[in-house]
Design brief:
homodimer, 423 residues, 2 domains, nine-stranded mixed β-sheet, seven-stranded parallel β-sheet, ATP-binding protein (chains A, B), Sacchrp_dh_NADP-bd (chains A, B)
């Protein structure tokens, strides 16, 4: 297996660092629009783990240009293109990988567009629509595009498949629930507002109409922040206010798993929900440029870019952050014994540990872990498939086993949690 | 009396329209940086009230240049310069008026600067400090600078003086309280967020440390939004959440009126307070430019300018606004009969009426009304003084009488209200 990693930002950097401890591939080409970022990642790996005998290379790439992606992939005989940049680049990397006759993985799917006249009830273009539309091309080429293979989507979809295969005879709801107790402090130790993930992407996710799937209705949308619910997260995180958010799981799970309802709720917490509502109310979430006075005369800037410019870079927050983040799926329905059942399957990532082990903050590290595991299963032939597929199209058990197996036994040493909530 | 009005924005335009119905002056020169704005105001007056035989002239002026202000004033033999622009231009208009040997009025005083190391407890440079420092120059020139002569400060200070002279033997607190029930709707009739006063100035007022005066301590500051209090406003406005805000009354009243405590609380309401806190938390209130990406490469813009650019112009809101705004002073202490007393003296402005009568929204109209009355009293010699003085330095009774007197009896037909809250 020869991998082209597109993007050496927070998640890409963590992907390479995690993969550096594994041996299932021959080559990882770490590429970025900014070559120095790719070189920094490769240098960190060589400093930490010794010379890699050419297993890691740094390259410059333009993710917005399919030809650039295909050229780098072909030059290195790449078998798998790993997309680790913002989802707006999905179409070009997706096309470049196919052109290079390589397989493809991403952690977020092609972007949605709201319904033009009825956005809070009906879907428009959905997440991933543009990718699934090309599934036949991938099948014909004999290649796999494994989409949504981060932590959420990704590990959450694996959990859902596991619940369907091993824990339930009938599923009422597959509810992905994401929450954290992360706190960021300034130099003086005061708590500050600093989102642990790209504010640009967070605004996109949270202010787009959330999508819900029901067996009788299919996919439909609601107003942003709908159906608030306090969900109690494990391992000391505790209760967090969660709301519906547009997310890939709701698109992916119903395609392969039988359930009555599929939702995604994000534990944003009261404060962050209030901030996002205010940004929306004041039009500061907008991506269309507005005319603003400046010392050099009027300029055109997108309000959302101004919001992002004023906040610290999430990748820089690791050393100033404490706490844990939890990703998981809450499943309700009838157990294999015919009795009502309610479980929460989850994985927790602790910032203190990810910083000490990988110099990566926990949210990006947890995201990056999962595509490494998936690639290892694909390299071994444990997972295989053609066309555009989600993580739940594959057998969940070998994935969760490899993830949980201790490092000294050849696994990733990342146990996952299980709560039987009716027990 | 020959008046130079500097600024034909919302308040300046309303000032000219209100003055057009009075006859106490010979000339009003309506001036603006944008000559067409001044011409529009003059044209409206002539269309509504007929030819004014040269009583109104339009001129271009640069409020940031004392020489420009002095030149226009001298050319027209101006006796009184009326400042109706943003407070950042106070120093230059103030200097230009004195250079032209004219008297001066404004509705907001020179800006403050927070204490460099202890901003939430101690004052730094206070509102109006830069003006009071020059009082001797004005006295020597035999001229008056009447500062803070809008509605708040302005009418509020007149109310305070009236209470001290006619209603109380001892005052515990002079508490200016400002509240409204204004609602702005979009074309579809949905309520929208649209501040009825410049968001730039509102942020400045609300995020600067509020100042409080106490007889034993003098002036001191608190953190923004301190001492929240629900104040019940009259004439159907009802209860509104008010918080301490930096305002001129707290600086002016203790200079001329004997009280134990002087405060200003603004009825921002929960929602607006939340929005201002969020803007502050995200650094979007900042006036220092930040580097932001744009289609033309990185640009430098002040986040506060971006916030303002995204909101509708307050002067344009009149037709889409409903409701009333109330300005007044809540006075507690001992009445002239020796008994405990608590009164609220106030003036209410109804947007429906100000739009119908003046095509001006009620907040700017109410602000502009008061300097017209003050100038009429100065023209008549009822009010007179030298140096830098606040409205409470003058007798309040003739002011309130002229304001309340019906139009057909020569007054302004604007009754003021009085609530005896212990009765």
């Amino acid at each position: 297996m020869r991998i082209l990693l597109v993007g050496a930002g927070g998640v890409g950097d963590a992907f390479a660092k995690i993969a550096a401890r594994r041996s299932f591939y021959e080559l990882i080409v770490v590429s970025d629009y900014d070559l120095s970022r790719a070189e920094r990642t490769v240098a960190w790996i060589e400093a930490r783990h010794g010379a890699q005998d050419g297993r890691f290379l740094a390259e410059r790439i333009d993710a917005s240009d399919p030809d650039s992606v295909a050229e780098v992939a072909q030059r290195h005989g790449v078998t798998h293109v790993m997309n680790a940049v913002e989802p707006k680049f999905v179409p070009t990397i997706f096309a470049g990988a196919l052109a290079a006759d390589a397989n493809y993985l991403d952690m977020a799917m092609s972007l949605s567009e709201p319904h033009p006249t009825n956005p809070h009830e009906e879907t428009g273009i959905m997440l991933g629509d543009d990718q699934f539309a090309l599934s036949a091309d991938w099948e014909k080429a004999g290649k796999l595009a494994l989409v949504g293979m981060g932590v959420e989507p990704g590990l959450s979809d694996v959990f859902a498949r596991y619940a369907a295969d091993h824990l339930f005879s009938e599923i009422d709801e597959l509810g992905t629930r994401d929450g954290a107790n992360l706190v960021v402090r300034d130099e003086l130790g005061n708590e500050i507002f600093a989102p642990s993930f790209s504010i640009w992407t967070t605004i996109e996710e949270c202010l787009n109409p959330p999508v819900v799937w029901e067996k009788d209705k299919g996919w439909f949308t609601t107003a942003p922040f709908s159906e608030p619910e306090v969900f109690v997260f494990p391992e000391g995180i505790g209760p967090v206010e969660c709301v519906n958010v547009e997310h890939e799981e709701v698109i992916l799970m119903p395609r392969w798993i039988n359930a009555k309802r599929v939702t995604f709720k994000y534990g944003l917490g009261d404060e962050f929900i209030g901030i996002l509502k205010t940004l929306n109310q004041l039009g500061l979430d907008k991506t269309e440029p507005v005319r603003v006075r400046s010392a050099d005369g009027p300029v055109m800037v997108a309000p959302r870019d101004v919001v992002a410019a004023g906040l610290p870079d999430p990748a820089s927050l690791g050393p100033r952050m404490t706490g844990k983040t939890c990703a998981g799926v809450w499943v309700t329905g009838t157990g294999t014994d015919g009795m009502p059942r309610e479980v929460y399957l989850y994985h927790v990532s602790d910032n203190e540990w990810t910083m000490a082990e990988y110099e990566a903050q926990c949210v990006v590290w947890q995201t990056a872990l999962n595509p490494v595991i998936a690639l290892e299963l694909l390299a071994a032939g444990t997972w295989s498939g053609l066309g555009v597929l989600g993580p739940e199209a594959f057998d969940a058990k070998p994935y969760l086993d490899l993830m949980a197996l201790p490092v000294d036994q050849g696994g990733y040493g990342q146990p996952w949690g299980f709560e039987d909530r009716l027990a």
